């Protein structure tokens, strides 16, 4: 890959002369055909640069060359998409040469894609692609205009009379409405599964789930009273319970439980991924919960909770599962290896998409 | 604004306990009603933190408090959207507490919005909003699948028989297909001008203009042979020259000149903003150019070149204008105060949108 590095250097020389504060462009990350990945960062005056990545459980010291470029290579990486960042003398930075940024409100990390030989479930394949639309809606609950993303499947036509089911898909706690597409690749996963006839064509709505600054009202009210009406008045969708699903990750997984289980008349599918449930709303809803389990179990066509065994929330999720079991609520646990990561989260979604609306 | 800071600290305490590597959430940037803006960055061990912003022409030293939070305030900022970053002991970082990131391939900066009292041309107002769709298209020219964004105006209906004009809008040199919406707010500018009846409803196509790694083929071919056919076969658009426009900023402004002036049979409007023209393609097209000026002037309904007097490309643009004048090509110069900035770029677009397709 060396030739790319120096070509890029030359290409930018002319612009650099007028913007001397910019570092040279580097090729980073570089992924080769053997799934080795090389990271580069320009910092001639730094004393230490560490590579922090979800590929490895520990940070990796990078090495500086004579030009001030720090480099680290990780060999034979398991194909997937991984977040990473550089720690430059203790300061965490995203990779300035990588456009793919983890959409998040609290940290700035980059993303590296190791495609591998066989296309993964989130790969950009040569199949028909749906659209992601960035929309504004008015939230009366929160008294503001908010954003949401809407995935419409390949062949979607607003006006041909066909109606679609809807999955409401909620991001993690400091993520944004873009995290499910930018990091979770929800649109590509749906494209692939629909092309392979493993999922039915559906609309996926990805709202912005954070409610800040405090005090934090119920996001549940925003979903029920603002987002669902906005979607149902702007898209050709089925409006019965059997064609509505809710899913979410981490804080969004907790929100999913709150939204779904307090509105079982509105959702037939609840998919909670590594839920974070140490919230006031969850305590309020479920501490002294006395559900009509028989009715709920009849209404819900599928309720799953997914988590990785290395997830810091694993024990908490075990507690959630025990609680639902004690209340006689039928929930399917999906336990896999791995941590509180978007690598796992993609798999959880792929699993749900193959089960929902069938 | 102090109360927000501490509320946010408390809200995140529980999650922080399990992810100790994360810095505390801060409220940054804070914009008050008098247009004062405060930036905060947590770095207890840093020796120096500078604020680099396009609000000021110089970097500003930030001050550390006992908790390790560095702060700087700029008073009475002229309402606009400004890029900024922190330089932490020489390392440039985006603001970890700010979601609004400058979409760019070479640097990671954040964006602060100073809304002011009266809504600016790019403000999120309570008017009907268009949609931004993220699409994939196949580029035969570049032998790959590429992304582009498509703005459709409020009330757009794919199938009601109405046809729209199309503006092709190209970002700057290391920007991405998202920069015109995320930084340039092209969608909100269009929403506002359409609501105020100052612009006609149109489709705005924002392709990814970078062609890397080298060698760099003509992006022009991709626009003409791949992007325009993709749009014209997927959207209800007029396909005659009078309903097609091209615009772009910086490197994209140079691409605009190449695309538009070598295809005057395809575009009636050319809007070049602070064009960067020290490229092989521009030299090839225009060094020994011998145009049929009369024919070109008849075909083009409007050709403008915009630039700020403080732009590092100002002299270069003066040279471009002189060259076109010498060749008898009618071009309208739009000279304003200011530098090579997206603050100016937004105004250039707002100006074009009020003149195009009329």
UniProtKB/TrEMBL annotation, chains A, B:
<feature type="domain" description="Glycoside hydrolase family 13 N-terminal">
    <location>
        <begin position="32"/>
        <end position="90"/>
    </location>
</feature>
<dbReference type="InterPro" id="IPR014756">
    <property type="entry name" value="Ig_E-set"/>
</dbReference>
<dbReference type="Pfam" id="PF02922">
    <property type="entry name" value="CBM_48"/>
</dbReference>
<dbReference type="InterPro" id="IPR004193">
    <property type="entry name" value="Glyco_hydro_13_N"/>
</dbReference>
<protein>
    <submittedName>
        <fullName>Esterase</fullName>
    </submittedName>
</protein>
<dbReference type="InterPro" id="IPR029058">
    <property type="entry name" value="AB_hydrolase_fold"/>
</dbReference>
<dbReference type="Pfam" id="PF00756">
    <property type="entry name" value="Esterase"/>
</dbReference>
<dbReference type="InterPro" id="IPR013783">
    <property type="entry name" value="Ig-like_fold"/>
</dbReference>
<dbReference type="GO" id="GO:0004553">
    <property type="term" value="F:hydrolase activity, hydrolyzing O-glycosyl compounds"/>
</dbReference>
<dbReference type="InterPro" id="IPR000801">
    <property type="entry name" value="Esterase-like"/>
</dbReference>
<dbReference type="InterPro" id="IPR050583">
    <property type="entry name" value="Mycobacterial_A85_antigen"/>
</dbReference>
<dbReference type="GO" id="GO:0005975">
    <property type="term" value="P:carbohydrate metabolic process"/>
</dbReference>
<dbReference type="GO" id="GO:0016747">
    <property type="term" value="F:acyltransferase activity, transferring groups other than amino-acyl groups"/>
</dbReference>
